[in-house]
Write a structure and sequence with these properties.
This protein has about 300 residues and is of the alpha/beta class. The chain contains 10 helices and 11 strands. It folds into 2 domains: about 190 residues, Spore Coat Polysaccharide Biosynthesis Protein SpsA, Chain A, CATH 3.90.550; about 55 residues. It is globular and about 50 Å long.
Length: about 300
């Protein structure tokens, strides 16, 4: 078996159907298997999978184990020399999988490759290729300094916007929405870290591959549309943000940017959770305002007077 395609699913049944339909339209030329991991979804996907991709296998999990856990359950059943992790809210373009497979099979030192990820409107998702995420590069990204200084080695050190998206190149991190892995490299460094329930597990895996000497490569000739936020282990906003900030803290601790990081880890933690608190408060206040407006009903029309 050359390739195993692993799709973790928790919510967004319609999007999963479109993902499977795109695989049916644009299948890889090699021998492959498709594994859909149903991560305790409220809408079981077996009937849809059988209709859209009858050869696919569905693995049902009764407890939500998160994106990383769902992918790992699929990897346990994968028989391919290469593995493609694919979000259910993606749609693969023509020959995208074959291009990725050619790129990784043609370079024995490469452990992972990723495509150019596009929004529905065709614009680029800059997270499809990433540099090293540190508290400093993350802060620059959060406040928009990377947009102002797109070629700065530090301020643009995370998304590396200044490099553009036209050339194939080695990077530090890929996006887990669509990532092809060499199975031998994956076995060498281990699967996704399940302590990162949501977010960050793709960067952690990319960093572990790089640290072990494997190449991680961005391949823009392969194109995949990614909706974002409508698949995988979908959760409510506040819970999603809580997992996001927690995963960032875990990522910094697993891959410290400096040898002295332990001395200011507490300060980074304060910054992260203060940011989460501000976002949570703003979200709650916004929801209450919307609720109050709905309770009052539509505003009465105001009569216009001639000047």
């Amino acid at each position: 078996m050359t390739l195993s395609i692993c799709i973790p699913y928790h919510a967004g049944l319609e999007r999963l159907g479109r993902c499977l339909a795109s695989l049916r339209r644009n299948p890889p030329a090699c021998e492959h298997q498709v594994i859909v991991v149903d991560d305790a979804s409220a809408e079981p996907c077996s009937p849809l999978v059988q209709a859209e991709h009858p050869d696919a296998r569905v693995v049902r999990i009764d407890v939500n184990v998160g994106f990383a856990g769902a992918v790992n359950r699929g990897l346990e059943r994968a028989r391919g020399t290469y593995v493609l992790i694919l979000n259910p809210d993606t749609e693969v373009h023509a020959e995208a999988i074959d291009v990725l497979l050619d790129a990784i099979s043609g370079a024995q030192d490469v452990g992972a490759v990723g495509p150019l990820l596009l929004n529905v409107d065709g614009t680029v998702q800059p997270q499809c290729k990433r540099g090293r995420l540190t508290p400093l590069t993350g802060l620059a990204y959060a406040v928009g300094l990377d947009r102002l200084c797109p070629n700065h080695p530090v301020l643009d050190g995370y998304l590396r916007r200044g490099e553009g998206y036209d050339e194939e190149r080695d990077v530090r991190g890929l996006m887990g929405s669509c990532m092809m892995l060499r199975r031998s490299a994956l076995d060498a460094v281990g699967g996704l870290d399940e302590s990162m329930f949501l977010y960050g597990e793709d960067l952690d895996l990319s960093y572990r591959l790089c640290d072990a000497g494997w190449g991680v490569r961005f391949v823009p000739a392969a194109r995949v549309t990614h909706v974002g936020g409508e698949g995988g282990t979908q959760v409510r906003y506040l819970r999603s943000q809580m997992h996001y900030h927690r995963s960032l803290q875990l990522l910094f601790r697993k891959h410290p940017p400096t040898r002295w990081y332990f001395a200011y880890d507490w300060l980074v933690g304060v910054g992260l959770w203060t940011r989460f608190g501000v976002m949570a408060a703003a979200h709650v206040v916004g929801r209450r305002r919307i609720g109050a407006r709905r309770a009052r009903g539509p505003a009465s029309p105001v009569a216009r007077t001639s000047p």
